[in-house]
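Summary for the funding panel

The consortium committed to producing paired sequence-structure records for every protein in the target list. Below we show the first two records in order, beginning with the earlier of the two.
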Amino acid sequence: MLFTHRADAGERLAEALRHLEGDDPVVLGLPRGGVPVAYRVARALGAPLDVIVVRKLGVPHHRELGFGAIGEGGVRVISEDIVRSSRLRPEDLAEVERAEEAELARQARRFRGDRPRVPLDGRTVIVVDDGIATGATAAAACEVVRAQGAARVVLAVPVAPPDAVTRLGSAADEVVCLSTPHAFRAVGEWYQDFSQTPDEEVVFLLARAAADPGARTSVRAAAVEVDAGGLTLPGDLALPEGAGAVVVFAHGSGSSRHSPRNRSVAADLNRAGLGTLLLDLLTPAEGADRAHVFDIETLAGRLADATAWVRGRVSLPVGWFGASTGAAAALWAAAQDPDVGAVVSRGGRPDLAGPRLAAVRAPTLLIVGGRDTTVLDLNRQAQRELRCENRLEVVPGATHLFDEPGALEEVARLARDWFTGHLTRDA
């Protein structure tokens, strides 16, 4: 199993942890790479997110060998067997602990700032990392979390070698691992993008989670089959309790309903009380052919059919979220559907809707990355053709895929505000 990046791994890992949603868990990410994965897990489960700062205590003359670990709150886990076999003196232990305590305090302040730790007493705690090689740090984290009062400890990672997963079964009450390849050499081999996670991203994600912890919303989610002009399209329908509207996602450039970016935005909309339908507008064979990917008229027709399917099942306002060529499809269809309530385009190609732009009546929000200069110019050109209420939002520093720290979260915020403002204000 290959992951696109840590956000993708987090989305997939969250699905495997759904059985813990009713346990009111706390999610802890191991810095630095584990935090972006944990952030997606916490948001999907509606759980609080925190960082678990652990420092391994290494034998002075053999640092790779740990004789224990320390965590925040004065938690100290020591292996007396290794202390004895390594012939460590009390002063040796004290010297190592002093150095590691200072680094632990520095990291905790750096990542969390002045916010207090999330209490773990009596809670189910999910410890998340972006992958496991030897498992030493993960095992130490599980021991520290248990010492901090957790009633149940679950270790969750996207990928790890089979022997490490077996060993960690004694450190955690449950180990959830999506992939356990036998030919394992390094965690990064199993990611398309395994670039280093900077401290700034960890700080941002923890602050964002603390500011918007996400009230638990009951969401009915189901896999559906949507009839689109005689063609059956697979989709995922999510309806929060008391939903005020439904947003149908139009994917583009060969993307599918499994797009981690669109699923992340959809989850944010669900937390805001908006239903979502993510579906594949193209069959797998069609998605591999660029001629179909850029067949905007066909995409628009299928989006219209899917919208009719939604309206036949729920009496709610409907909006469209389009990405790339999906944005053109949404605007093409909006030119023919006076009842669509709002349209949002993410990194889209609204210019491909051509002269139909002038006929769009739905309030339209165009979101483009500041560094996606070609697409930004095309959006400005398309905006000049629109006659409806519209706005162009530029996300500073973002490229076409909005992979930069905080970029996708800004997209979700903008889309959420636009849809709630235009779809639910009269509901």
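The next record, for a separate protein in the list, is shown here:
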Amino acid sequence: MSVLIAGGAGYIGSTVASACLDAGITPVIIDNLVRGRAEFTDGRIFYEGDISDAGLIDRIFSEHPDISAAVHCAALIVVPESVADPVGYYEANVTKSLAFVSHLHRNGCDRLIFSSSGSIYQAEDGSPVTEDSPLAPQSPYARTKAMCEAMFADIAAAGKLRVLSLRYFNPIGSDPLLRTGLQLKWPSHALGKLIQAHQEGTAFPVTGVNYPTRDGTGIRDYVHVWDLAAAHIAAIEGFDSVLTESKPSIAVNLGTGSGTTVRELCTAFNNVVSTPLATVDTDPRPGDVAGGYTASDRAEKLLGWAPKLTLEEGIRSALEWIPVRDKMLND
């Protein structure tokens, strides 16, 4: 079996490709390398180009007629950048995705696994969300994900596609074999900021301590990227049992079920490193919210998936990836 992975040179896509290889599935990667890294495709079938390129998609299917499904991880994902350049984000994430599914349909591929996001939910008060919770995307980036989901669902309802939208929450860590990981040297998420503060020997600011959470600090749902990759394998292998002609589209949350507060993240970090990291309580930043997390009951019911790796394991693999990343990417 072969699977087309759009955005397969990026953080999530390359990790899914690694999981495919380990499961005996051949990943066929397409990536325009705007954010992806060619180094993450070494030894893998790779086509450099855009998902909207009709001729290239046709060529891929002609050369790999055994492709049975597509995993769509190709997107721009930086929230502040999306605010500054909404036109670019809607073009890259929505317009090109529409072209992509048109090319898939023309080539007889009706199985699509879409990388969606927990950021589409109205999750501001620290409470858990389910797939039926209200949607309220707060950035152009998040709105592109919600729009793609709606667009794909409409196309599926017309009988042109079946789509499983996997709503990721906060991926951390790397491929356990350190084949791939985050491309960025200094990622902007909380764990990246923790690692940076630890390396620089500075205190980590806990921004906001009076939220309606179990310890007053913001809460997020950190899920190991290798667990996310495992969910994709389960989705690929169980696709036809989850999606049928009568139910051609569905969304599934992928998270831990309990979430992690900022203080809990700091404690877990200090459990992993040899030199404890100091923290300092500060005021919330403008626009900060308590956050939220998800139960993954639907993922367990439909895909037989539940996260297996701990927060500490995610932190440890993120730390182990840093020297490998510096040597592999050299920038």
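Regarding this second record: The chain has a mean pLDDT of 95. The radius of gyration is 19 Å.
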